[in-house]
Amino acid sequence: MSRREPLVDGHGRAIGDVRISVTDRCNLRCQYCMPADGLPWLERDEVLSFEEIERLVALLASMGVADVRLTGGEPLVRRDFPRLAGMLASVDGVRELAVTTNGFLLERDAAALVAAGVDRFNVSIDSLQRDRFYELTRRDALDRVLAGLEELARHPEAHPIKVNAVAIRGFTEHELPAFVEFARQNPYEVRFIEFMPLDADHAWEPQAVLTGEEIRAAIEEIAPLEPLPREPSSTARVWRFADGSGSIGLVSPVSEPFCADCNRIRITAEGRLRTCLFSLGETDLRGPMRSGAGDDELEELVRAAVWRKELKHHVGEPGFIQPDRTMSAIGG
Ligand code: SAM
Ligand code: SF4
User: How does pLDDT run across 164-206, given as a tens digit for each residue?
Assistant: First the structure.
């Protein structure tokens, strides 16, 4: 691999992590992410091919972007997804390959993904109660998702497994006792992620966020917690149960933004580079790739965009503008 200069933004942050959306399609319709009827999906040829994704990952890895997370939409609905994972796992300079999934197809794909070299899995589950899972995701799929999670857990290489729940006021409070039990009985770190204004229905409002601190306080009422040291550039604050059984993570982008340490960029399914979840502008990489741009030219495009990476997000501030894209179309 030809080593290139590290990728650094205009505020001095070295970029080490890329989140790639491999499809905008999904088999669930989570209320905080997608409209009930779905969205107008991209045409097949609008989506980056496996070879195009591999090329971008190799270019970014040569600039020190060593951590790659594959997401969507639902990444497992992309045909032949484990083959893509295998291609990326063997790219020179990729240190960690992770997947964020809703788990619906994990029973089918867990073994193939582990064999392909995926190192880390985040499985999104917002409720452990069948009717409430259905209410939030608009699909009666909890049993299938839990079966997928169990299948994944059979593979020692997949651990530690993280289970992500979006923290929504009026909903998540009622899930806490079950999640505490779940985190204490199983080898999963349950992580609560504050609801962000990236929902299709524009129903987000500041009051709809159940904050990390509120969750911590509510969990303390059930079982005492102890803080674990924060890992550098980790978005989560992790607490373990004082009796040693299990841990929980709190990701608080709204109430305690971690922008100063943000080392991430994102690539959408159609090959647009985004430097922040809340970016209002994007840089097209697919067009130049398809019209014959060389790696040096692509590198220049990436560097110019990353140089302008936003200092911070403005969620909750007057004048905040919600991006047109929903989380599913960005790649969360
Ligand atoms: N479909 C996969 C899944 O659900 O895990 C991957 C894509 S999904 C967009 C990635 C993550 O974003 C999920 O954990 C989901 O819960 C989270 N997410 C979606 N919309 C969100 C929002 N408005 N606020 C906070 N997190 C959100
Ligand atoms: Fe699909 Fe994930 Fe969005 Fe839910 S959060 S609608 S599973 S992309």
Answer: 999 999 999 999 999 999 999 999 999 999 999 888 888 899 9
Q: Which residues contact 9 (CB under 8 A, 6 or more apart)?
A: 15, 275, 306, 307, 308, 309
Q: What is the mean pLDDT of residues 150-175?
A: 97
Atom of ligand 2 nearest to the CA of 26: 1
Instruction: Return d(Cα 111, Cα 108) in angstroms, integer.
Output: 8
Q: Which two tokens stand for residue 307?
A: 């140089």
Written as one letter, the residue type at 293 is: A
Q: 166 in ligand 1 pocket by Cβ < 6 Å? A: yes
* Pocket perturbation via mutation, ligand 1, pick of 23, 27, 30 by most ligand atoms within 8 A of CB: 30
Domains delineated in the chain = 17-330 (3.20.20.70)
At residue 107, the pLDDT reads 98
* Ligand 2 contacts CB of residue 74 (under 6 A): yes
Cβ–Cβ under 8 Å, residues 206 and 250: no
One-letter amino acid at 149 equals L
pLDDT at 101 (0 to 100): 98
- DSSP lists the bridge partners of residue 14 as 8
Strand order in the sheet with 225-227: 225-227, 236-241, 247-251, 188-194, 161-167, 120-124, 96-101, 67-71, 17-21, 264-267, 272-274, 283-284
Indicate if ligand 2 lies below 6 Å from the C-beta of 165: no
Whether residue 28 has its Cβ less than 6 Å from ligand 2: yes
Whole-angstrom Cα distance, residue 62 to residue 2? 7
Place of tokens 């129903």: 203
Alpha-carbon span 150 to 144, nearest angstrom: 10
- 33 C-alpha vs ligand 1 centroid, how far in Å? 7
Does residue 26's CB lie within 6 angstroms of at least one atom of ligand 1?
Answer: yes
- Three-class SS state of 191: strand
Placement of tokens 């790659």 in the chain: 68
Determine whether the shortest distance from the Cβ of 199 to ligand 1 is under 6 A. Answer: yes
